[in-house]
Each structure stands twice: as structure tokens, then as C-alpha cells.
Amino acid sequence: MTLMTERPTISGTEPDSFEDLLDVLDELNLRDGFKAEIYRGKIVVSPWSKGYYHRVMKQVCEQLRPFLPEDHCLSIGPFLYVFPGDESAYGPDIHAAPSRAFETESNHLDGEALVFVAELTSPSTRDDDLTDKVTVYGRAGVPVYLLLDMQAKQSTVFWTPSATGYESHCTRPFGEDLHIPKPFDCPLDTTGFHAPATNSPAP
Questions:
Q1: Beta carbons of 34 and 48 less than 8 angstroms apart
Q2: Residue 54: which residues within 8 A CB-CB, separation 6 or more?
Q3: Residue 202 has pLDDT above 60, yes or no
Q4: pLDDT in tens, 152-174
Q5: Residues contacting residue 104 through CB under 8 Å, at least 6 positions apart
Q6: What CA–CA distance (Å, rounded) separates 27 from 24?
Q7: H/E stretch holding 30
Q8: Which of 56-60, 157-161, 198-202 has the lowest mean pLDDT?
Q9: How many whole angstroms separate alpha carbon 65 and alpha carbon 52?
Q10: If you ran DSSP here, which 8-state letter would residue 14 be given?
Q11: CB 161 within 8 A of CB 138
Q12: 60 — phi, psi (to 5°)?
């Protein structure tokens, strides 16, 4: 197997099935600071999130948790959700699903159990967050996908899942409220989602 450096992807001998690919993912011995997911049949290795992303994820969870449906869990990773029909497996930054979805000894959770996912983009995976994940999450019937574009400093919410992705979306710049549809049906205040200010060097 070869680790690609420009956009890290493991390629080489093709596994016989998606299940085999998941086994390869489980056996990876990654360097500290990196995570691995499966995008359309390929294993993609990318760096872990920047430190301030934790603050943003915490703000999202604090605002949405009061509106969480009964007997559901809203969490910050790491959990791996699988989408066999699209040969994909993602570890979303924030995810919500019924509590029963976690009652398993497997580390491969059912992607169709999700009721909400949120991704915070990074330069290495931003294009996939904007394209492939929109399609895969929508095809799996995930009701709401929140995309926080940390490079463009804007948030987009997708809803009305369909066989081709999502039929509805709304984008707002950071600092403006964004309505999160059902099952939350609440506003999200995106103030404070920006990167921390850098200190100017002393004169």
C-alpha cells in the first residue's frame, strides 16, 4: 500500500469487499495527529482538527442539546459511521442518533441511524465535505447536515434528504443566526465560530 502525500489516500491491491476495506481501516497504525475515513472506496488519511475547533463544536452542542429528541445522543466524535451503499465510512465532528444505535460491540455504526451530522472543514478534506459527504449523508436519509466552512467563514445547513443528496440548503456567514431544521427546529448562533485572533508582534 502507498500513502499519497498530496491528498493522503491509501491505494494498491483492491480489497474484495467494503467489509474488507473496513478491516484494513481498523488495522491501520496511524501516526499521532491523523485520522482515517473511507471516501467512495478509498481510505483517506487527514490531520486531526485544529485546537479551536473544539470550542466551536462545544458551542454547537450546547445550543442544540436542549432541542434534542428524547432518547437521542448528541456527541463529538470519535465514532465511525458506515454507508455500505456508497462504500464510505465517516467519523463526523458532531453527530446525533438514537441511543439504541450505540448498543453494539461493533466500532462500525449504522450511518442510516443518524439524525444529524456536522462537519468542520479543513484544507485537506474541505472539497469532500462540500461534495461527497453532501451526497452520501443525503442518500442515507440523514435529516440535517450542518457544514461549517472554517476556511470561507460561513455555515451551510442541508435538509430534505433525497436519492441525489439534499433538496434544500441555506448558507449564512459566521456571526449570523442559521435555522437548524427538524428534529431540532431551532436557531444556531454562529457568533464566535471564527479562528482566535493572532497577536501582533510587539514593536
A1: yes
A2: 76
A3: no
A4: 999 999 999 999 999 999 999 99
A5: none
A6: 5
A7: none
A8: 198-202
A9: 20
A10: P
A11: yes
A12: -60, -50
Residue type, 113: A
pLDDT over 70 at 68, yes or no: yes
Three-state SS at 89: strand
Helix residue spans in 65-139 (DSSP H)? 126-130, 132-139
Question: CA torsion sign, 15 to 19 to 21 to 27?
Answer: negative
Q: What angle do CA 182, 194, 202 make, to 5 degrees?
A: 170
Pick the closest to residue 142 from 112, 118, 163 (CA basis): 112
Query: Using CA atoms in the order 117, 121, 125, 126, what is the torsion angle rounded to 10 degrees?
Result: 110
Residue carrying C-alpha cell 457568533: 191
CA gap 62, 195 in Å, rounded: 19
In residues, how long is the chain? 203
Quick check: 153 and 173 in contact, CB under 8 A?
yes
Candidates 152, 76, 58; CA nearest to 116 is 76
Q: Which three cell numbers stand for residue 202?
A: 510587539
Residues whose CB falls within 8 Å of the CB of residue 73, separated by 6 or more in sequence, listed in order: 96, 97, 98, 99, 102
The three grid cell numbers given for residue 200, joined into one nine-digit string = 501582533
